[in-house]
Amino acid sequence: MFPLLTALLLSRVGPGKPAPLSEGAVEAMLGSCGHRTVPARVVGGEDAELGRWPWQASLRQWGSHICGASLLSRRWVLTAAHCFKSVPYPYEWTVQFGELTAEPSLWNMHAYYNRYRVDKIFLSPKYLGEVPYDIALLRLSSPVTYTKYIQPVCIPASISKFENRTDCWVTGWGDVAEDKSLPNPYTLQEVQVSIINRSTCNDLFQKPDFRTDIWGDMVCAGDVTGGKDACLGDSGGPLVCDLDGLWYQIGIVSWGVGCGRPNRPGVYTNISQHIHWILKTVASGGSPRLDLPRLLLLLTVPWAPRLVGLI
């Protein structure tokens, strides 16, 4: 464990309730983050530009895109826990960085060199097979090489500064509408969304045809009029906002009702509520692997794919 990381954790994480962390402390632990060199384009575009979201990753099982993910540091990646519906064997998984397409050519050597094997998978200890607490950390087998097109994202100690923002973004390779797959050449999509406060979001989800509570670590984003949302295949991807020139990931794509429906914003995992678990896991190199009873519990939970997650 790095000396600075050790000192900060010992001062923050004790037997009682962890003390709040500042943004500076988090960045000191994980390193420089949130930078991009490709400038923003006009709002309203759909196809992303290479390097515009340099932390965006494709989580792949046996070489096929399954979920989105984001680069946290050279060895660590964030995604959604529900992406691993069965026993999470690391050897089945790789993470692709630095590509605009979800299906790079077999002859694309850049893609080959920027594809990393997963060494360990850590689901949140609070996750019990469905939302909330839908977050996972991946430890890569080798360190990522940073480039102009591959950079880590920052994570916030609190999302209070991002509440009611209307200029945040969600990205991914999922469906572009309900029952409409992303067409060839499978270019990364981006959409600008608003952060919707919990009270408003709870009211929206009490409307007829589907009622549920927004609670725990859930945070909502989208457009109450519809048309701006994550969809199937975007699970695990980042919801990011700019703050003073740095990009922070405040949420992980988790679940929703349909895609882009009015009064049905997307629901994301609030990363700031997991900040101590993230830092402790990174600092220690990971907690013990899941034991058999926990794996059996995950396998016996009934799944409702669209409502539980957006794989």
Automatic annotation (TrEMBL):
Keyword Chloroplast found: no
Ranges that cross the membrane: none
A GO MF term: serine-type endopeptidase activity
Keyword vocabulary terms for this entry: Disulfide bond, Hydrolase, Protease, Serine protease, Signal
A Pfam entry, by short name: Trypsin
InterPro entries, alphabetized: Peptidase_S1_PA, Peptidase_S1_PA_chymotrypsin, Peptidase_S1A, Trypsin_dom, TRYPSIN_HIS, TRYPSIN_SER
Domain annotation Peptidase S1: ranges: 42-283
Keyword Disulfide bond: yes
Protein name as annotated: Testisin-like
Gene3D superfamilies the UniProt entry points to: Trypsin-like serine proteases (2.40.10.10)
Record GO biological process: proteolysis
Signal sequence residues: 1-18
Organism for this UniProt entry: Chinchilla lanigera (Long-tailed chinchilla)
